[in-house]
Write a structure and sequence with these properties.
Elements: E1 5-7, H1 27-38, E2 47-49, H2 50-71, H3 82-93, H4 95-101, H5 107-114, H6 119-129, E3 138-144, E4 147-156, H7 173-190, H8 195-213, H9 219-222, E5 231-233, H10 234-238, H11 246-254, E6 260-263, H12 266-270, H13 272-275, H14 281-297, H15 302-307, H16 310-316, H17 324-335, H18 337-349, H19 351-373, H20 380-387
Parallel strand pairs: 4-6
Antiparallel strand pairs: 1-2, 3-4, 5-6
Helix pairs in contact: 3-17, 6-11, 7-8, 7-14, 7-16, 8-14, 17-18, 19-20
C-alpha cells in the first residue's frame, strides 16, 4: 500500500480522507488519509503520489528548458538528437498552424479508411492500414523472452476502449461507452464525415469493441507473464486464420514469414475467426475509424483537443485539459524519451550521483550473486544461468 497516494474519483473529486479510519475497517484510508488531506492534485492530473511529485518537478524543469531552447534563450546542448526533439517541440507548439489546418493533416488517411469497400479490400490493404491505425490484432518484434540475444515476432489481441475487460461489468460502463460514442461522432463530423455516417461508424465501433472485450485478456491475466510465452510454428499459426490472409499480411508488413511466432493471447487466437470475418466487416471498419480519429485528435487543433477530452475526463476524473505548451513538451519527450533522459541526466543528475548509483547497483548485484551461489535448493545449472 502506497502511503503517499491521492487520487480523484470518476467525477473529478478527490477521495475524501478520514484520519480516524481504522486499518481493520478501511486499510486504504487508515494509511493514506493524512497524505490525501495535505496533497493538492494539479487540475490537469488525475492523481498524485510520491513519484508523481517527482515527475511534476522534472516536468517543470524540462518544460522551461524546452521553451528556452525553442526561443533561443538557451543554446541546445550537444546531446545526440536533442535538436530534433526541440524541432518537434516547436512544431507541436505552433498552435496557429495547428488551428489553421484543423483536420487537414489526417484527411488523406481518413479517406483511405472510409474508402475500404468490403472484406476483400480490407484484406488487400491491411498492411498499409497498420501504418497509421490499429488492426484487430497486434504484431510486434521484441527480444525473445527465453533468448534475449535474438528478436522474435509476437502476436496478441488489440486493446479495448475501456481500460480493462472487468470495467465492462461495472455500472459505469454504459455511460463511459456512450461518452466515447458521442465524442467519436463529434470528432468525425469535425473531420468532414457526414453526421449519419459518423453515427454508424461510432455505433459499429462500440459493437465490435464489445466482442473484443469478451475474448481479450484482462489486466490480471496479463500479469501472468509466463502465460504470454507460447511459441508456435508459423504454419500452425497461419492455419488458425480462415478468412483473413495472414500469410500475405506478414510478407507485406514485415517482408518475410519467420519460422515461428510467440502467441501472447492463445484464447484470442483460438477465437480469431469469430472476430475477423466478412460478416463483421462493417464493425471492423467502424472500429478502425473510431480508434484512428480518437488517437489523432489530440495532435490536431485546440478544438479537436477539447472535443477529444470528455472520454478521458470521464475515465480518470481529470478536471482540465493540459495546456498546449505542456502537451507540446510531452509529445517531444515521448518521441525522444531516451534523448531527453540523457540530457536530464547530464544536466540535473551529474557524474557524482551517477557514480553513486552505479556503485549501489554493483553492490546489489554482488549480494544477489553471493545469495545465488550459496543457495542450497537450486541446481548448479540454474544458479549459473541466474547469475548470467
Amino acid at each position: 500500500m502506497n502511503k503517499n497516494f491521492a487520487v480523484r474519483g470518476g467525477s473529478g473529486d478527490i477521495i475524501e480522507p478520514n484520519v480516524a479510519a481504522r486499518p481493520q475497517d478501511n486499510l486504504y484510508l487508515a494509511i493514506n488519509s493524512e497524505w490525501i488531506k495535505n496533497t493538492k492534485i494539479p487540475e490537469d492530473r488525475s492523481r498524485m503520489a510520491s513519484f508523481d511529485g517527482i515527475d511534476v518537478d522534472v516536468e517543470k524543469h524540462l518544460m522551461q528548458d524546452f521553451a528556452d531552447f525553442a526561443s533561443g534563450k538557451k543554446e541546445v546542448p550537444n546531446v545526440p538528437n536533442l535538436g530534433e526533439a526541440v524541432k518537434l517541440y516547436k512544431l507541436a507548439c505552433d498552435f496557429d498552424k495547428r488551428n489553421r489546418e484543423g483536420a487537414e493533416p489526417i484527411k488523406d488517411d481518413l479517406a483511405i479508411l472510409a474508402g475500404i469497400k468490403d472484406f476483400s479490400d480490407y484484406n488487400l490493404n491491411a498492411p498499409d492500414l497498420a501504418t497509421f491505425t490499429m488492426l484487430p490484432f497486434s504484431l510486434s518484434v521484441e527480444p525473445d523472452m527465453k533468448n534475449t540475444k535474438v528478436n522474435a515476432l509476437y502476436f496478441a489481441g488489440p486493446g479495448t476502449f475501456l481500460p480493462d475487460t472487468t470495467t465492462y461489468q461495472t455500472p459505469d460502463a454504459p455511460k463511459l461507452l456512450d461518452t466515447l460514442q458521442k465524442q467519436s461522432v463529434k470528432l468525425l463530423t469535425m473531420a468532414g464525415i457526414a453526421q449519419a455516417q459518423a453515427e454508424k461508424y461510432a455505433a459499429d465501433a462500440i459493437k465490435f469493441d464489445a466482442k473484443l472485450a469478451k475474448i481479450v485478456k484482462s489486466t490480471e491475466e496479463w500479469a501472468d507473464y509466463p502465460a504470454t510465452y507460447n511459441p508456435m510454428k508459423i504454419e500452425d499459426f497461419e492455419a488458425k486464420f480462415d478468412q483473413f490472409k495472414i500469410a500475405y499480411y506478414l510478407k507485406e508488413a514485415i517482408g518475410e514469414e519467420p519460422e515461428r511466432i510467440i502467441v501472447e493471447e492463445p484464447r484470442y487466437l483460438d477465437h480469431i475467426n469469430e472476430i475477423i470475418n466478412e460478416e463483421n466487416f462493417a464493425e471492423i471498419k467502424g472500429w478502425m475509424i473510431v480508434t484512428f480519429i480518437n488517437a489523432a485528435a489530440d495532435t490536431l487543433s485546440q478544438d479537436f483537443r477539447e472535443a477529444a477530452f470528455p472520454f478521458s475526463q470521464a475515465l480518470y476524473g481529470q478536471p482540465k485539459l493540459s495546456s498546449g505548451e505542456k502537451q507540446a513538451y510531452h509529445i517531444a519527450n515521448s518521441a525522444f524519451s531516451e534523448v531527453v533522459g540523457v540530457y536530464y541526466g547530464q544536466t540535473y543528475f551529474g557524474e557524482d550521483a551517477k557514480k553513486d548509483v552505479e556503485d549501489m547497483i554493483h553492490r546489489m548485484l554482488d549480494v544477489y550473486k553471493e545469495r545465488l551461489q550459496n543457495n542450497d535448493w537450486l541446481s548448479a545449472q540454474t544458479k549459473k544461468r541466474a547469475i548470467v
